[in-house]
Amino acid sequence: MTGDHTNALVSVVIPCYNREKYIEAAIESVLAQAYRPLEIIVVDDGSDDSSIEIIGRFGSTIRLIRQENAGAAAARNSGVRNANGAFLGFLDSDDLWTGDKLAKQLEVMTRQPEIDLTFAHAEEFISPELADDVACTLRCRQGAMPARVQSAMLIRRDAFLKIGFFDETLTIGEGVDWLARANDAGIRSVVLPDVLLRRRLHETNIGTTKKNRRQDYARALKAALDRRRERQESGE
Fold first, then answer.
1. Cβ distance 19 to 97 under 8 Å?
2. Of 28, 46, 100, 179, whose CB has the highest number of CB atoms within 10 Å?
3. Cβ distance 33 to 2 under 8 Å?
């Protein structure tokens, strides 16, 4: 698969906050995609490490947007507002795509135009630079697993706009909230059986460092249940 089945522009949005260790590899995994044309937008969310310098080494191949720290949801939204593509992809700045990720998803979406959104399977790995005493504290699940997460998705731009932007009031759980709204909107999606995402585990994963904000997950789930209850009561 060479990814030449369509000439549609794909905009890839990478939110970045203090990811000097990993942002280079994340960007390179997008540049290594078999599919073209691509628009790569990195939104730096107020980093105070060397992330900006590392991103700058890629020159004009990357569109860099800088903003004050406002969270991953705000960074993704900023990227979407500046995107020109008919399709939108998202990659967390510490994760990696396989080289055929976009090509395989676009093949499905071209063959089945009724599909608005595709996900894929993912594999987790422990970041190789971690000391043994840190690595042993991380729970790394073995094998491929379905990944209905931002980094594994590709969506038609018009479908994304129908759903709406990520909730910027949520520090974590914005993906859960967004996916629930996608389901509410009747967005048609499939999960490809292929492993197209490699999820990096390290000591500064947001799920680890933001444990005190787990209430955001609960709030996102409650909002989804409330919407479902309202639809049932209205007879929709």
1. no
2. 179
3. no
Task: Judge whether 39 lies within some domain.
Answer: yes
**Torsion sign across C-alpha atoms 45, 50, 53, 56:** negative
Residue 226: CA count within 13 A, CB half-sphere? 7
User: How far, in Å, are 85, 99, 216 from residue 7 at the CA level?
Assistant: 11, 18, 39
Report the C-alpha gap between 151 and 23 in whole angstroms.
Answer: 14
CATH number at residue 193: 3.90.550.10
> Residue 141 and residue 151: Cα distance in Å, rounded?
17
Domain count, the chain: 1
Q: Which residues pair with 158 in a beta bridge?
A: none
Please identify which residue in the block is written with the tokens 């492993």. 195
- Strand-pair partners of 14: 42
Question: pLDDT (tens digit, 9 = 90+) per residue, 42-80?
Answer: 999 999 999 999 999 999 999 999 999 999 999 999 999
In a domain, 223, yes or no: no
Half-sphere exposure of 78 (CA within 13 A, CB side): 22
Record the tokens describing residue 10, joined without a space. 């794909």
Quick one: pLDDT at residue 3? 42
